[in-house]
């Protein structure tokens, strides 16, 4: 998978898996392919379990109370997942960097991808750019990739719903 570099694509995949956990290994494989991952091995139940452990750890990063807690949680993920960077050329995609050992099962790949991608996203765009939707009844997680860095809602639908609610509260 050639990412941007590991940043937004990885956090968007993590958010997708957190918001809609895959039911089985086949669904995990399909969603990873849709996200642009090149799957080098068959996907197993163990991959699903390891991927969901990564997502569980990642949600703690999302829900951290402040930047220090967010960094500590993410540093624990990085220590458990990342290896030294290496140049690879697989599946005809051209040379690119991987922050993991070669020939890893998908669960391990996702743990590294999510950890490193989140670190690059947060350090490159800002530590606040990973959150849950501002609508109280919506728990959707999203990565803020907006130009201004002030995205508060997971979708335009939630933004509109909250605007209508605020308007009605002011006027009625």
Annotate the secondary structure layout.
Elements: H1 8-19, H2 25-34, H3 45-62, H4 67-81, E1 86-88, E2 96-98, H5 106-125, E3 130-132, E4 141-143, H6 156-171
Antiparallel strand pairs: 1-2, 3-4
Radius of gyration (CA) equals 17 Å
Q: Which class of secondary structure composition applies to the elements? A: mainly alpha
The SSE string, one letter per element, is HHHHEEHEEH
Q: Give the fraction of residues assigned to helices.
A: 40-55%
Strand order of the largest sheet: 1-2
Give the end-to-end Cα distance, rounded to a whole number of Å: 52 Å
Number of helices: 6
Overall pLDDT confidence:
90
Summary?
Helices cover 53% and strands 7% of the residues. The protein has helices spanning 8-19, 25-34, 45-62, 67-81, 106-125, 156-171, and strands at 86-88, 96-98, 130-132, 141-143. Helix 4 (67-81) runs antiparallel to helix 5.
Polypeptide structure, described:
The structure is a single chain. By secondary structure, the protein is mainly α. The chain has six helices and four strands; from the N terminus they run ααααββαββα. The strands form two sheets. The protein has a two-stranded antiparallel ribbon with strand order 1-2. The longest helix has 20 residues. It is globular, with a radius of gyration of 17 Å.
């Amino acid at each position: 998978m050639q990412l941007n570099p590991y940043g937004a694509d990885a956090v968007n995949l993590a958010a997708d898996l957190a918001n809609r956990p895959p039911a089985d290994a086949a669904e995990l494989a399909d969603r990873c392919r849709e996200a642009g991952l090149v799957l080098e091995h068959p996907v197993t139940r163990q991959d699903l379990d390891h991927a969901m452990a990564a997502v569980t750890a990642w949600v703690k990063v999302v829900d951290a109370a402040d930047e220090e807690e967010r960094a500590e949680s993410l540093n624990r993920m990085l220590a458990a997942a990342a290896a030294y960077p290496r140049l690879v050329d697989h599946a005809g995609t051209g040379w690119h960097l991987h922050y993991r050992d070669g020939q890893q099962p998908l669960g391990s790949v996702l743990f590294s991808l999510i950890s490193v991608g989140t670190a690059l996203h947060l350090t490159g765009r800002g530590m606040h750019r990973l959150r849950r939707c501002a609508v109280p009844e919506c728990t959707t997680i999203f990565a803020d990739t907006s130009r201004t860095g002030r995205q508060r809602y997971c979708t335009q639908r939630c933004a509109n719903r909250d605007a209508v609610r605020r308007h009605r509260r002011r006027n009625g």
